[in-house]
Amino acid sequence: MGSTDHEKKIIETLGTKSILKQQIFDNTRAAFQLLKDELSEISQKFNAQLHDTDPRILLEFRDHGEFGAELKIAGDLLMFNMHSNIFQFDRQHEIWKTAYIKNDVTAGYSGVINIYNFPSDSFKYSRNEDLGYLIARIFINKNNHFFVQGKRQSGFNFTTLGSKAIDRNNVYQIVLAAIRYCLDFDLLVPPYDAVKLITVGQVNQSISESRIRTGKRLGYQFRSDDIDQ
Questions:
Q1: Beta strands 109-119 and 133-140: pairing type?
Q2: Residue numbers of the chain with a pLDDT score lower than 70
Q3: Does residue 73 contact residue 177 with C-beta atoms inside 8 Å?
């Protein structure tokens, strides 16, 4: 029996789009390994200069395997997470207006590395209700080109896909910008109405385990126009 149109389309897709996504996954995984290498080196470099200070402010790097890593900086924790899937931008995204993507739409498929910021005490005291904030996303495509989507005030300067390839120096600059941003991003007192009621159980639990929910902007939301597209 000859191949049907459906069979031909399946074979065509497996031979093109599926291979493309595997290539992007490999690029993203290599970039994430490079990121972890830089996190380790940066922690050693900074700690060498901080050895005579309070040991509680020393940087601590932890490798959580293929898809995760963290960097503790004093009272802050940066969590780095590589997503296992490959994504395409929605049709409203500014990326579709660029000549780079218009010339090759497959360059718009990307792997993603997320950077989250938490208070380090959230993990130290197992405060599972605490809030972390996505401060940046690194997108990497088939050509190893990348761009960073993050808060405009964060100092992430790599905002154009197709202009730069991911490398050690670029990763180093991204990590430094993430560290500076989280150190400047202070905890705010939550609105009075958000914390004016509390149960007996919450009080007892917070006394014994310090578990009153905490987040750097508890009760507030970032404005959407603060995000670089």
A1: antiparallel
A2: 1-3, 151-155, 186-190, 194-229
A3: no
Place of tokens 């005030």: 153
pLDDT for residue 177: 92
**Tokens 């149960």 map to which residue?**
199
Residue with tokens 């987040």: 215
Sign of torsion over alpha carbons 167, 173, 176, 178: negative
Q: What global pTM score does this model have?
A: 0.81
Per residue in 175-216, pLDDT (tens digit) is: 999 999 888 876 666 677 766 666 666 666 665 555 545 555
Backbone conformation region of residue 165, classed left if phi is above 0, alpha if psi is from -120 to 50, else beta? beta
CA atoms of 140 and 135, how far apart (whole Å): 17
What's the chain's Rg over C-alpha atoms? Answer: 21
Domain residues of the chain, as ranges? 5-226
- Neighbouring residues of 94: CB distance < 8 A, sequence distance ≥ 6: 229
